[in-house]
Amino acid sequence: MIVLVINCGSSSIKYQLLDMKGDDVYDLLAKGLVEKIGLPDSNLVHKPSGKEPYKLVCPIPDHKVGIKVVLDALVDPSHGVLKSFDDIEAVGHRIVQGADFFSGSTLVDEDVISKIEICCDFAPLHNPAHLLGIRAISNVLPDVPQVVTFDTAFHQTMQPQAYMYALPYEYYTKYRVRRYGAHGTSHQYVSARGAKVCGLDLENSKIITCHMGNGSSITAVQNGKCVDTSMGFTPLEGMIMGTRCGNIDANVVPYLMKKENLTPDQMTDIMNKKSGFLGLSGKTSDMRDMCDLAAGGDERAKIVLKKVVLDTVKNIGAYAAEMNGVDLLVFTAGIGENNPWLRKAICDNLTYLGVKIDDEVNENAHGDVIFSTPDSKVKVALIPTNEELVIARDTMRIVSEMDN
Ligand code: ADP
């Protein structure tokens, strides 16, 4: 089944076209990115497998045009990979926020769209863009079934003690204020893949997954189900991130708002876009730059790196306690996959759990790699995340069920 996977951001569209032959058997036909939608230098970078990449700079005023540009690239005689739009059998969309409406992927219909609309309140930058993507596809490919996969769905198995805030209960019933988590598709993929790579029975396992990128979250997965995760009502909660502050005493918020005469929107912007690595270092939100700064003696960059390690080991310790043990620790995403120094610094703090890593394997790890030693009590693995594959699998399964 040929599945187009789409991830619409507020000014971007990421896509992958996969020929799904089985759950783990597929060909990546093409992938690409539309950027700067609505800006003068809007453009497409299209990477067809086995052909030269293709770049197009052209006016892309909105998502509707963006989707059209992507579809045209896919069927173009020179850099395309399909004969016609008819070859696309299904479309799967990544949706950031499904709140407690969705505990799994689902076929798009009017009811699903109206629930994604309600969730716009909790993800004002992302969900409206996802809806634009769904509508744009309906416009051009009205007969192609569309499936939505939610970043929050995997976390819906959390129990109330993990997802409730100890605020007056009425705010939960009136406004749905609770913890939803994020990066669920990634945590789901790397926990299942990690169990397979390590020969563990997923249904009978305790796994902690560390998704560390620009946004970072850590999840406790017991018997294949999420029991707790570090992000909350929004992706702001949890550990320090590129530009997000992570956990702070909530009283800091009204205190600073009064002192600096800030509106709620300004405060939200500071906590989400001007804090984290960027706010603390005053220089960069990028981990590679942070490592260079720290190596050059920058004291604040050194604090950032130490705080990343501290926040990570605190979460791992909490989740090991919560599950009363841990069999496997997984690292993934931009930082988790590419920074062996950080992985080592974190693991060196976990010897009390019986974690022992092979420094050389860690240093050279690429792809799915177990880098704990054979006598380590906890297996430790690097598993590159693949959210698009989960979306394509779910899309294939749901559309096939529809056909039967
Ligand atoms: P997003 O959350 O936007 O998907 P990514 O998962 O791409 O982010 O992660 C981005 C982070 O990963 C950045 O801080 C970047 O510096 C870091 N990163 C990417 N590649 C490397 C690398 N080779 N070495 C160290 N850090 C890296």
Topology:
Blueprint: E1 2-8, E2 13-20, E3 26-35, E4 43-48, E5 54-57, H1 63-75, E6 90-95, E7 106-107, H2 110-118, H3 127-140, E8 146-150, H4 160-163, H5 170-175, H6 184-198, E9 206-212, E10 216-222, E11 225-229, H7 252-260, H8 264-273, H9 276-281, H10 287-295, H11 299-323, E12 328-332, H12 333-338, H13 340-347, H14 359-363, E13 369-370, E14 379-382, H15 387-403
Parallel strand pairs: 1-6, 6-8, 9-12, 12-14
Antiparallel strand pairs: 1-2, 2-3, 3-4, 4-5, 7-8, 9-10, 10-11, 13-14
Adenosine-5'-diphosphate binds near residues 214, 286, 287, 288 and 335.
Query: Which percent bin holds the helix content?
Result: 25-40%
- Oligomer, anyone? single chain
Average pLDDT rating: 96
Task: Using the coordinates above, name the CATH class of the largest domain.
Answer: Alpha Beta
Structure summarized in a few sentences:
The protein has 404 residues and is α/β, with parallel strands linked by helices.
Task: Report on the architecture of this protein.
With about 400 residues, this protein is an alpha/beta fold. It has two domains: about 1-155, 2-Layer Sandwich (Nucleotidyltransferase, domain 5); about 200-385, ATPase, nucleotide binding domain (Nucleotidyltransferase, domain 5). Helices cover about 40% and strands about 20% of the residues. It has 15 helices and 14 strands. The chain has helices spanning about 65-75, 110-120, 125-140, 160-165, 170-175, 185-200, 250-260, 265-275, 275-280, 285-295, 300-325, 335-340, 340-345, 360-365, 385-404; strands spanning about 1-10, 15-20, 25-35, 45-50, 55, 90-95, 105, 145-150, 205-210, 215-220, 225-230, 330, 370, 380. The strands form two sheets. An eight-stranded mixed sheet has the order 5-4-3-2-1-6-8-7, sandwiched between helices. Strands 11-10-9-12-14-13 form a six-stranded mixed sheet, with helices on both faces. A hairpin with an 8-residue loop joins strand 13 and strand 14. Helix 1 crosses helix 3 (about 125-140), helix 10 crosses helix 11 and helix 11 (about 300-325) crosses helix 13 (about 340-345). The longest helix has 25 residues, at about 300-325. It is globular and about 55 Å long. The mean pLDDT is about 95. Adenosine-5'-diphosphate binds next to helix 10 and helix 12.
